[in-house]
Amino acid sequence: MLYYSLKNHKNLVSFEDAVLTGLSPDGGLYMPKCIPKLKPKFIKKLPTYDIHTIAMSIIKPYIGKNIPEKFIDNIIHDTLNFSFPLKKVHNNIHVLELFHGPTLAFKDVGAKFMAGCLSFFSEKLEKNVTVLVATSGDTGGAVAKGFHKKPGIEVIILYPYNGVSSLQEEQITSLGANILAVEIHGNFDDCQKMVKKAFLDKEINKKYTLTSANSINVGRWLPQMFYYFVAYKQIIVKDPIELIFSVPSGNFGNICAGMMAEKMGLPIKFFIASTNINDTIPRFLRNEKYHPLPVKKTISNAMDISDPSNFSRIWHLYKKNIFQLRKKLFSYKFTDEETLSIIKKIWKKYKYILDPHGAIGYLGLRQYLQEMNNTLEPGIFLETAHPIKFLDNMPPILQKKIVPTKELEIFLKKKKTIQKISLSKDFNVFKSWFLEKK
Ligand SMILES: *Cc1c(COP(=O)(O)O)cnc(C)c1O
């Protein structure tokens, strides 16, 4: 499979180069040259396949011959070693839980998969590969864990000062070895801008072989298609059906992966991009003006993003046509008050504990179904993180009810050395630090 840059469709590279560089030298995101179609028979038989078989079938064409099949098989095996349960919350509303991985957020799948690919590619290189990544909280932890002690790879994580939860910060700053945590006095968009600038900087690129592990990188982004297939596999209702997905969205990588799954042939009727008050996309869908406002802090901090990178991929997938996009996508925003109130209500009525991100997913799905007067079709919202990751942001009456997972208990008890570097959001300050660090 070849990949082209969204800024210049003539700039074609292999999967290997797309993963190794993250972003095209012209600053554009990479897109696969074609979207392979799955056979209708495959979709029909999906409920009978195991998750390994499903993942292999969907991802193989995107890699081609760049990685031998045996290795892809190992990477998938390593990546999908936890569960992705689909549960009914009430009536036709279902939740797909994506937080059973090592860092308790959905980003574990993309991060581990990409780490596996990068390890394979970096063996042939003389220089180390430096992964430079900006995080709104969960990418940092997942990338740190997924890349920890991988030979030939060094990881630098930029995260916003005071912008991530305490557990998230601990996950980023406590591993050491090849993982460097850098706290930036700014917000996530500032961190993301720095990463993009670093990629285009001549001096930095002369010294380092840089890549990114944000959903900008196709190695991080594409494996997320898997969630939508695994939801379809588990939902047992009358055949044939089309699903409705509500995705709590920040950088719009996850929902864009869902759109790729749909283009491959998975029967998805509609997507709902649910956001917090950082609502660039809900506004865009109304008035077709892309106008990011300054980022506002919310209790769903992993979505405190106002200039989502992956929207350029979505816009491209729908041929830059607002009418086509509106046929497949709605987008709603919700406030912190609405988020807290629905968390309490769902616990009271159905004994299910939503995290602030999943709560926004739930709210978006509910609003869509109400507007459509739809009480029959199965709707699924993605629960993107375990509520314990955002304990400080949860309603006080629920905080004591949230039980940590076994893995988390071990992590919390372990003695840790916190290591971080603190820098201003001035790119030149970051650049001098980066060029001079040992
Ligand atoms: C990253 C993240 C999101 C947003 O996902 P995008 O792919 O950036 O839209 C939502 N919820 C949680 C918990 C996250 O960590």
Task: Note down, in words, how this protein is organized.
The chain is an alpha/beta fold and 438 residues long. The protein has a domain at 84-106 and 221-399: Rossmann fold, CATH 3.40.50. The protein is built from 20 helices and 14 strands. It has helices at residues 15-21, 40-45, 51-63, 69-79, 107-122, 138-147, 166-173, 188-200, 202-207, 218-221, 226-234, 253-264, 280-287, 311-317, 322-326, 336-350, 356-371, 396-399, 406-413, 427-436, and strands spanning 2-5, 12-14, 30-32, 86-90, 93-97, 129-134, 153-160, 179-185, 209-211, 243-248, 268-275, 329-333, 379-383, 421-424. The strands form 3 sheets. The chain has a 6-stranded mixed β-sheet with strand order 4-5-13-10-11-12, with helices on both faces. β1 (2-5) and β2 form a beta hairpin. α3 crosses α4, α4 (69-79) packs antiparallel against α5 and α6 (138-147) runs parallel beside α7 (166-173). The radius of gyration is 20 Å and the shape is globular. The protein starts with a strand and ends with a helix. 48% of the residues are buried. It binds pyridoxal-5'-phosphate (PLP). Pyridoxal-5'-phosphate binds at residues 105, 107, 137-138, 215, 248-254, 302-303, 357, 384-385. Pyridoxal-5'-phosphate binds next to α12.
Percentage of residues in helical conformation: 40-55%
**Each distinct ligand:** pyridoxal-5'-phosphate
Largest sheet: 6 strands, mixed
The stretches of 5 or more residues where confidence is low (pLDDT under 50) are none
Annotated CATH topology of the domain at 84-106 and 221-399: Rossmann fold
Distance between the termini: 37 Å
CATH class of the domain at 84-106 and 221-399: Alpha Beta
The strands making up the biggest β-sheet line up spatially as: 4-5-13-10-11-12
Mean pLDDT: 94
Number of strands: 14
Shape: globular
Beta fraction = 15-25%
What is the CATH architecture descriptor of the domain at 84-106 and 221-399? 3-Layer(aba) Sandwich
Radius of gyration: 20 Å
Helix tally? 20
Structural class determined from secondary elements: alpha/beta
